[in-house]
Amino acid sequence: MTDCGCEKARRDLEEYLRNEICTTEHSDIKEHLDGCPGCRDEALVAQTLTDVLARACKETAPEELRDQVLAKLRAAHATA
Questions:
Q1: Cβ atoms of 50 and 43 closer than 8 Å
Q2: Which end is more exposed in the chain, N or C (fewer Cβ atoms within 10 Å of the end residue's Cβ)?
Q3: Which residue blocks in 1-80 are alpha helix, DSSP H?
Q4: Do 25 and 12 touch, CB atoms closer than 8 A?
Q5: If 0-12 CB within 10 Å is exposed, 13-18 middle and 19+ buried, where does residue 28 land?
Q6: Phi and psi dihedrals of 66, rounded to 5?
Q7: Structural contact between residues 55 and 29, judged by C-beta atoms closer than 8 angstroms
Q8: pTM, whole model, 2 decimals?
Q9: What's the average pLDDT block by block, 10 residues per block, for the chain (80 residues)?
């Protein structure tokens, strides 16, 4: 394996984190992240953000809030 470098690691970081990259490139990027604190930190931030967003998307709004939003949307649609 060869070190892919910071530019490639950062360019392909999202695909790497989603496992949407070929095995060879995945290994090269992992090797780079293991040896580059700056890129590793960037990957950690990106992974944390991805995890937080994924959890937020699984949550549902309280029924009262949903009812309020739907009522406002209906009112806005009726006046349009």
A1: no
A2: C
A3: 6-11, 13-17, 23-35, 37-58, 63-79
A4: yes
A5: buried
A6: -60, -40
A7: no
A8: 0.64
A9: 78 93 92 95 95 88 93 92
State the amino acid at position 58 in one-letter form. Answer: K
Structure tokens at 59: 């949550």
Structure tokens at 32: 């780079």
The class of domain 6-79 in CATH terms is mainly alpha
Tokens for 4?
A: 């892919």
Give the amino acid at 77: H
The confidence score (pLDDT) of residue 12 equals 94
pLDDT of residue 57: 86
**How many other C-beta atoms lie within 10 A of the C-beta of residue 71?**
10
Q: What type of residue is 17?
A: L
- Answer positive or negative: Cα dihedral of 52, 58, 59, 65: positive
